[in-house]
Write a structure and sequence with these properties.
Blueprint (H helix, E strand, L loop, with lengths): L2 E3 L32 H6 L1 E10 L10 E13 L2 E4 L1 H4 L2 E7 L6 E10 L4 E6 L22 E6 L8 E14 L7 E7 L11 E4 L2 E10 L6 E5 H10 L13 E4 L4 H6 L9 E6 L14 E5 L2 E2 L5 E4 L2 E4 L1 H5 L6 E8 L2 E8 L19 E4 L2 E5 L2 H7 L4 H8 L14 E6 L14 E6 L2 E2 L3 H8 L7 E6 L6 E4 L3 H12 L5 E2 L3
Antiparallel strand pairs: 1-12, 2-3, 2-5, 3-4, 4-7, 5-6, 6-7, 8-9, 8-11, 9-10, 10-13, 11-12, 12-13, 14-15, 15-16, 16-17, 16-20, 18-19, 20-21, 22-23, 22-29, 23-24, 24-25, 25-26, 25-27, 27-28
Length: 499
C-alpha cells in the first residue's frame, strides 16, 4: 500500500540547524476556544511556507537541490505552532502567515519528530498572535462521528474547511519516515497537499493533525490522533525529543489450528507467537523465539497480536507506544507450556535508524584517490539502488542478525571519480568495504584514519565483501590526484564524517 505525502513541502529533511529551546508548556487548558469566534479560530490556523534544500546522496559533496512548498499549522500555546515534520523537513527558511493577512512572519523549528511526523515551531516575533485563542487538544473521535479539516490545500491561497466522517481507527505506517507505524484515524475527506499539519476539529477541540492521504482511493485521508500528539508534547517537555521505544519483537499470528495445538493453546486462549527477538532490544533479556505472548500490562493479546483499549481493538504495540525510555511494561507469556511474567525496561534502539529516512543531516562521505565511500542507510540505498546481493543482505539483516554490533557503519564504495590513479577500478563500485590494509572496517571515522595515516604505505589494499580480489590504490601521486579530482568534479571538501 502506497501513501502520498499530503503537503507540497514534503521533502527529505528538516531544519538544518535547530535552535535550542526551553521546555514548552502543554496545550493551554484554559483556552478560550469554546467561546472564541470562528474568525478568531481560523486566525489560529496558519499557512506555513517553506524553502528547503534536499541533500544529494549521489554527489554528497554538493549542497543539494533547492525546493519549496507550503503546509498548515495551528496555535496550541504561547508562541507554539504544531505542524507535521514533513512540512518543515530540510527547511532553510520558514514563514508563517495568519488567515486574512498578507504579512509573512519568520519562524523556526523548536522540535521535530520524524518518527511520528510532528514538529513544533515558534516565531521570532509572536506579538501579532498574542490575542488569538489556543486550540485545545481533545480525544480520539468515535467511529462514524463527524470532524472538520482546516488548512491551506493546493488550489488557492485562502483557508479551506472540509467535513468528513471517521471511518477507521488503525495502526498503520507513517509515510514520512518510511519505517515507523503508529495509531492513525482514517476519515472520508481528502487530505491534499497543503492540508498537512492542519487541525482536524471535533466539538471545538483538536481531534488530530492531518498528515497523509491514500494514493489508491478518493476522499480517503489520515490524521495523527491525540495519543500520538500528546506523547510528542510530553516527550519535549525536557527540551529535547527522545524518540519512540520499541519491544523489539517480531510476532506471528496464531490462527492455524495445527499451530495452536502444537503450542498447547485452546481455541479461546489468548496469545501471539514470538517469531524472533531483536538482539539488544528491550525484550532481548526476557523473551525468545517460540514464546507465546499473552498480555501486556494486563491487556490480553489476541491471536493476531491485538489488544483492546477503551473499546477499540488496536495493535499490541500501542501499549508500548504511549511509554518513554526508562518506563517498564509487564509481559505475560508462555514458554514450553509454563506461564511466566516479567517486567521489561523499555529503551530506544538507534540501529533501527538504518531503515528510516534521514532528515536535516548532511550526507557523510569520504573521498580518497577518487574513491567515494559512504555509510549505508535508507537515503543512500534509495539513491543508488545497489545491485550487489551482499550489500542488499547487509542492509536487510543489519538489525536482525546483529551486524550493527560489529559494524556501526556499513561503508559502501558508491562511485569512482575517473582519474589516472584509479584507472580500471570502476567495476569495484557498489560494494561494501570489508577491510583496509587488513583492518576490519567498523565506521567511517576509522576508514578515514586508515586512508590518511601519518606514514602512508606503498599501497592501500581495500577488500570488499563478496569480491575475491582486493582493490589496490597506490599512495605515490595520491596528493596530486586528489587535487585534480577536486578541480575536475568540484569537490570543495574531501570528506564529511559527521552528520
Amino acid at each position: 500500500m502506497k501513501f502520498l505525502f499530503t503537503c507540497a513541502a514534503a521533502m527529505l529533511g528538516t531544519l538544518y540547524a535547530q535552535q535550542p529551546a526551553t521546555a514548552p508548556t502543554t496545550p493551554i487548558e484554559d483556552s478560550a476556544i469554546e467561546t472564541a469566534s470562528l474568525a478568531d479560530i481560523y486566525k489560529s490556523v496558519v499557512r506555513i511556507e517553506v524553502a528547503s534544500q534536499v541533500p544529494d546522496y549521489k554527489t554528497p559533496w554538493n549542497a543539494g537541490r533547492f525546493s519549496g512548498g507550503n503546509g498548515t499549522g495551528f496555535l496550541i500555546g504561547e508562541n507554539q505552532f504544531l505542524t507535521n515534520a514533513h512540512v518543515v523537513s530540510n527547511a532553510r527558511r520558514v514563514l508563517i502567515t495568519m488567515h486574512g493577512s498578507s504579512r509573512k512572519h519568520p519562524a523556526r523549528v523548536l522540535h521535530v519528530a520524524h518518527d511520528c511526523d510532528l514538529a513544533l515551531l515558534e516565531l521570532d516575533d509572536f506579538s501579532p498572535f498574542e490575542k488569538l485563542p489556543y486550540l485545545k487538544i481533545g480525544s480520539i473521535p468515535k467511529l462514524e462521528s463527524e470532524v472538520r479539516v482546516i488548512g491551506y490545500p493546493m488550489g488557492g491561497e485562502r483557508i479551506s474547511v472540509t467535513r468528513g466522517v471517521v471511518s477507521r481507527i488503525d495502526f498503520r505506517p507513517y509515510a514520512h519516515s518510511r519505517a515507523d507505524s503508529h495509531l492513525v484515524v482514517q476519515i472520508d475527506a481528502a487530505i491534499n497537499p497543503g492540508n498537512s499539519g492542519g487541525p482536524v476539529l471535533q466539538n471545538g477541540k483538536v481531534a488530530g493533525v492531518a498528515f497523509q492521504g491514500l494514493t489508491q482511493a478518493d476522499n480517503t485521508g489520515y490524521m495523527i490522533p491525540t495519543p500520538v500528539i500528546k506523547r510528542f508534547l510530553k516527550d519535549i517537555e525536557d527540551g529535547q525529543y527522545d524518540h519512540y521505544v520499541d519491544l523489539g519483537v517480531y510476532d506471528f499470528a496464531l490462527f492455524n489450528p495445527a499451530m495452536r495445538k502444537v503450542y498447547g493453546l485452546q481455541p479461546e486462549d489468548p496469545g501471539v507467537l514470538i517469531a524472533s527477538v531483536t538482539t539488544g532490544s528491550s525484550s532481548s533479556s526476557a523473551l525468545k523465539a517460540g514464546d507465546i505472548l499473552t498480555a501486556l500490562d494486563d491487556y490480553p493479546v489476541d491471536s493476531s497480536g491485538n489488544v483492546t483499549i477503551a473499546g477499540e481493538r488496536v495493535n499490541m504495540n500501542e501499549i508500548v507506544e504511549r511509554k518513554f525510555a526508562g518506563d517498564s511494561v509487564k509481559i505475560d507469556f508462555v514458554r514450553d507450556g509454563e506461564k511466566m511474567t516479567a517486567d521489561i525496561k523499555l529503551k530506544t534502539f538507534p540501529p533501527a535508524g538504518m531503515y528510516s529516512v534521514q532528515y536535516g543531516k548532511r550526507p557523510r562521505y569520504l573521498i580518497q584517490g577518487g574513491l567515494v565511500f559512504q555509510p549505508l542507510n535508507l537515503n543512500l540505498y534509495s539513491a543508488h539502488k545497489f545491485k550487489s546481493p551482499r550489500v542488499r543482505r547487509l542492509y536487510s539483516e543489519y538489525v536482525k542478525e546483529g551486524i550493527y554490533k560489529e559494524r556501526k557503519d556499513i561503508l559502501i564504495l558508491t562511485r569512482i571519480l575517473d582519474d589516472p590513479i584509479n584507472s580500471s577500478l570502476s567495476s569495484f563500485a557498489g560494494n561494501a568495504v570489508k577491510s583496509i590494509n587488513g583492518v576490519a572496517i567498523t565506521d567511517i571515522e576509522q576508514a578515514h584514519s586508515l586512508l590518511n595515516p601519518d606514514q602512508a604505505p606503498e599501497f592501500f589494499e581495500i577488500e570488499l565483501d563478496g569480491i575475491d580480489r582486493p582493490l589496490i590504490l597506490p599512495s605515490k601521486g595520491l596528493s596530486e590526484a586528489n587535487e585534480r579530482i577536486s578541480t575536475n568534479y568540484g569537490v570543495h571538501k574531501p570528506n564529511n564524517l559527521k552528520n
